[in-house]
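User: Fold this; C-alpha cells only.

Assistant: Input:
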Amino acid sequence: MVDGELVTDSLLVDRGLFYGHGLFESIRLDQGRTPLESLHFTRLARDAPRLHLPLDINCLRAQFARFKVNLQSHNIDSGVVKVIITAGIGGAGYCLPESVIPRHLFLHRPHPPDNDAIAHGVSLREIDYRLPTNPLLAGIKHLNRLDQIMARAEWSDHYFDGIMRDTDGAVIETTCANIFVRSAQGWATPSLTQCGIKGVMRTLVMDELLPSIQQTVREAELTLHDVVSCREIFICNAVRGIMPVVNVSNKYFWTIGKDTLSVRDALAVRQQCYQ
C-alpha cells in the first residue's frame, strides 16, 4: 500500500529502496554521446563485488545502449543519465537472498542549469556535519546518500556547495564533487581511504589530465587550514567538469589561477562538451 492505495509494483520491495543496497552513476549526455561512459562502467564493475552485487557489465552496457537509442527516438540528446543498480528482491531482513539478481534502472533528467559562477568561480561554505568513517565502503558511490542530504540541509543561500570533513576533521569532498588544491608543493587531493567517493572526474584528473600538462598530484590527509591557505582550488564531477573555487565562507578568497585553467583546458581538449 502506498499513500493508502494498494499497489503491486515490485520496485517497492526492492533492496535498493529498503536498505540503500546498490550503486549509481550520473553520466553526462551531450549530443547523444556519453563521453565518460567507460570510466563510469569501470567504476561500477570495480565496486559491485564489494556490495555483493553479481553485475554482468556486458549486459548492462547493452541495456544502456538501448536506453540511449530510446532517448534519441524521443529527440533527447543532452542532459544527465542516471544508472542505478540495486540488489533486487529477496532475503529475510538484512540477510542476502541465496541468489542476488540485480536490477538495472535508467533515468534521464535535464542538465543542471548553466551557471555563470562555474565559469567565473564557485563559492563554498564550511559544513558542520561530519562524514562517518568506514574503510570498507570508502570510495563507493552507493545508494545511501543520507550524509550528503544532512550536509546539504545546512544552507539555502548563495553557496554553490560545501566542504565536508570526517569525524577527525580531515577534508574529504564537497556534497557533490571532489576537491583539488594547489600549494607550493603541487596539487593534492584528499585521501579517500576512510570515507568519501572516488569520482569519475577525479580519476580522469589524476590519471590523465594532470599528467598531460606535466603536473603531478598526491593524495593526502588535508585539514581545512590546508585548503583555505592554498594558492588555487577547484572542485570537479562528471556532470559539470572542472569548477574553480573563488570563495570559502566569505572569509577566504582567490582568483582563478593559471594552473586551474590549464587543467580545465586539458579537459576541454579531451572532451569538448566541458568547454
